[in-house]
Every structure is written in structure tokens, then in C-alpha cells.
Amino acid sequence: MIWDPCNIGFSLLESHDSWLSGRVTNFKHKLALLIINVYGPTQNENKRRVWKEIEEFIRRTQEQTCIIGGDFNSITNQSEKRGGKGKTSRATLDFVDWIHRSGLVEINMVKNAFTWNNKRLGFSNIAEKLDRFFISGNLINFPYTLQASILPFSGLDHFPIQLNILLDSGPRRCPFKFEQMWLKYDNILRILEVWWKEAEVFGSRIFKVVNKLKIIKQKLIIWNREHYGNIFDKKSQVEAELKEVNKAVMLRGMDEVLFLREKELLLEQENILAKEEVFWKQKSRETWMDEGDNNTEFFHNSVKPRRVINIISKIKTNNGLEVEDPKLISKEAVDFFSNILNIDLSPYRLDQDKIMKFIPKLLSKEHTQGLTAKFSLSKVEAALMQMNLEKSPSPDGFPIDFFFRNASPS
Q: Based on the domain organization, do 210 and 268 belong to the same domain?
């Protein structure tokens, strides 16, 4: 391992025959991370021992963010192997089980890219994806973008892998989304009703609904920032106060003041945990499991992979140039689809007209008339009742549950 001591600090924490752990610090950006470098053994028994050692280390780090990378000498499924026996081995099953138990999220590289091969020809050639990166721990407030890549061939049987940790390019404009946990706030429905009545909009009914929703959206953003607050900060604060109460009880015993304070803090903590569970359930988009059974960890783990995968780090323009700057990526994406969807400017207009001639019309005249016919109130109600209450049917960010819980607009 090589690093610049002027910019990077490294302190070794543990060292074993097949892995080592340490803490890396970037002095300039005040970034500190736990890292584990792995060189996986070949024997299954030794692999299981190493996986257990690393799992115990991760558990001891108490939810700190940890990067795990190296040569694991194992694959997760047969798509990560070409050539050789096609049977799923015991080592593969153990490796996948360890990943799930440890709550690891893989930092994706090029899909189906092999990092090792035996350098043989023909049917004797075997290639596998043995090298990779994982991230574990609390990713709620992790402010960095992770990019994993495979470096050019080094002459060895392994391709080197590289992990880039990119600083946040600044605040991104996120679309508004009505948070289900807001509904657990006392009198929130009454507050929404007052806001709705205060919003004066003139025009047709649909015009008033759309514009009143815009007004409520702005009020909710301000209310969330100034009154509701960050539940994760509140959770940390309550936990810290509970520790202080417990210390006081250990020193001088329980008295009435401490008893009441502890009871108050425990109720507040229970309320925050309920909101947190709703928050992660909404983020996870899991619809088959309900909140209320302490499923926060499950919902959180469902969100982790998407946070790591849903990153556009590079895009290729129409001119063949690769763009990595986030602002240029956004501009290129908007320009690309604007040109395609703009019929008058699209360079594909002639091609589209030619293609349309060869697409058969599958809808009969009756079907077409049915699609364009006026819809009845009963059909609208039936469609609404079939929708998931937590889903937003339009870009305004308000879920079906929002409309069901509030009175019909006037």
C-alpha cells in the first residue's frame, strides 16, 4: 500500500493472514474511513474462517462506514464465471450468505466484467470475477460518490481494480416528495386543511387543485425545515440524553425526577423510531411488508443497493466525447431527450416516419374509440382504489394516501 503522508493518513487496526484493516484519513477534506483489504484463501474452510473474522470486525465497528475490497477468490453466481465447471459450489453459497449476513452492498463495476483469467486458450480458458469492492455501515449521511473500475491489464492473471471516492459536487435539486412520516405528526391533517383554505386561487376546478397543491408543497418544505426537523438528529440527541440519565441513575440511584425524564425520553424515542421506520419503508418502495413490526433494518437494507447503483458518473455525448462533470451530464441528458421529443427539431423525424409504416396497427376501431371515450366517475374511483396508497401518480410528489386522508377540494 502506498500513500502520500502529506495528504493521506493511515493507521493499521488489525492484521491477519488473509486480511488487514485500517483507518484512512484525508486531511484536506476531513474524510475518515475504515478499510479492509482482503486476499481470499483458496480452501473453503479457510474462506469461512476469514468471512467470520471480517463479519465480527464489522459488527464491532458499530455502524461505521467501512470499505471492503480486494481479491475474495469467490464468485456470487455463475454469470461471474466463463469456462470450467458450471455447477454452483459450496464456496459460492458461503460467500453470498456472508455478504447478506454482514449487510454488504457491492459497488458495481462494469457488468459481467471478469477480473481474473488462467491465461489459457480455447476450452481450457477460465475467467472469473474474483476482485470487487463492498461498502457497509450507516449510509444515511454518506456524502460521497463511489466509483469502481477495472484498470488496464498489468501482465498478471488479475486485472487491478480501483475505487474513486468523489466529493459531493454541491447540493442537487431533488424533486419534492410527500413524506409518509409527516402523517404521524399531531394535527398535521388540520394544518393541511387550514393551508388549503388559506390558498386563494381563481379559475377552473382542476386549475385550483393544481395550484393549491403547489402552494401546499412550498409550505410543507418550510414547515419540515423549521418545525418538523431532522429525525436522525433528534434520534441521536435523545439517545445521548438517555445515556446521561442512565449514568445519573448508576451514580445516585433512581429518583422521581430521573424516572419521569427517562419515561419522557423513552416515549420520544419510540415516536422517532416509528417515524424512522415509515421513512425507510417509503424509500425502500417495498409494498409487501407493513411497518409496525420493527422492520427498519430491512427497509434500510433495501435502500442501500439503490443508493450505490443509482449514480450516473459518466455519459457519452452524440459526438462520442465522455463527460464526467455532473452539470454537463445533466445538460447533455436534457438536450438529448429534448431533441428527440421535439418533432420539428429531431434529426430522427424521417427515420421515425419510415419505421411507423412497418409497425402493424394492433388496436381495432372499437378499442381506439374506447381509449378516447369520456371516463365516468365510477371508473376514476375504481382506478384510484386499485393504486398503492404510497405511490405518487404524478410528478407533484403527493401520494394517493394524501388525497384519501384529506377532504375533497372545493
A: yes
- Dist. CA 16–CA 339, nearest whole Å: 57
Alpha helices in 310-399 (DSSP H): 326-341, 349-357, 365-372, 377-386
CA 217 from centre of chain: 24
Domain count, the chain: 3
- The number of beta carbons lying within 10 Å of the beta carbon of residue 313 is 14
- Burial degree of 202 (CB within 10 A; 0-12, 13-18, 19+): exposed
The answer for residues whose C-beta is within 8 angstroms of residue 271's C-beta and 6 or more apart is: 184
My answer on whether 20 and 161 are in the same domain is: yes
Report pLDDT for 409: 46
94-148 pLDDT, tens digit per residue, is 999 999 888 888 887 765 578 888 888 888 888 999 999 998 876 655 667 777 8
Among candidates 37, 33, 8, 15, which has minimal Cα distance to 23?
33
Residue 119's φ and ψ, nearest 5 degrees, are 60, 35
| pLDDT bracket for residue 283 (50, 70, 90) | confident
> Is 123 exposed, middle or buried, given 0-12, 13-18 or 19+ CB atoms closer than 10 A?
exposed
Q: Give tens-digit pLDDT for 176-233.
A: 888 888 888 888 888 988 998 888 888 888 888 888 888 989 999 999 888 888 888 8
Give φ, ψ of 187 to 5 degrees: 65, 20
Domain boundary residue, one of 166, 201, 225? 166
Asked if residue 356 is part of any domain, the answer here is: no
